[in-house]
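re: ur question from earlier - yeah i can do the single chain one, its not a big deal. heres the input i used so u can compare w yours
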Amino acid sequence: MKLYLLPMLALLGAAPAPAPAKWQRIFDGKTLAGWTPKITGRAAGEDPLHMFIVKDGAIRVSHANYTKFTGEFGHLFWKAPLKAYRIRFEYRLFGESLPGIQSWQASNSGLMFHAQAPETMRRDQDFPVSLEFQILGVPRPTREPTGNLCTPGTTVVFEGKRDPRHCILSTSPLEPVGRWVRAGLEVLPNGEVTHFIDGKAVLHYSAIELDPGDKDAQPLIAAQGGKLQLQQGYIALQSEGHQIEFRNIELQKID
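and the output i got, formated as tokens:
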């Protein structure tokens, strides 16, 4: 009798697995409520030429009031820092790049994550210390996939070793400018990160650290008492000289 009863009691007493957190829309499709711009040469919150607008249910990087690129890299930050989460969104590069860009900026944008807060950036700082889910399209001077990793002020472990490269290419196919692409990012509590394009994993790495050799990372390292490990930060949509739209931006937090 006891042999059958004990397993049954163990089953009855087992706590049910917690349900995953619900997906939350962090862009309402109508306004930029909850989002803060930071443009090179300007203070956080300033966007006098309306680089970031809402049009047809999407956040648009607009060049309507720009005739030439003169160093105005832009980032649009979501209001809350994040630690472990999944984010999914759709993007579409469109139109032409602004005159005055460098060749690597063509058909180029990104989603920054684990980024420093916008108000901590220097006024003339081009990119936040962060990781970048790099978005590329073709045609462009070099035919590269989308969903890559770039590391302004940071480093990661890739394929078993700390990788010093600024950008690491994904296994995504080439994506043409003008197509809506489904993108996703998973940041686990143990520090492992995976990039997704159209539902397929295209890049995996771990062990995010601040780079002690980067001048913008150095104050952040000092604020952490010398620790290099980077465990959380902000997400930001990027403007890098080519128009792009983002829509259906959803977030799922991971405990």
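The CA atoms of residues 61 and 102 lie 18 Å apart. not sure if urs matches, ping me
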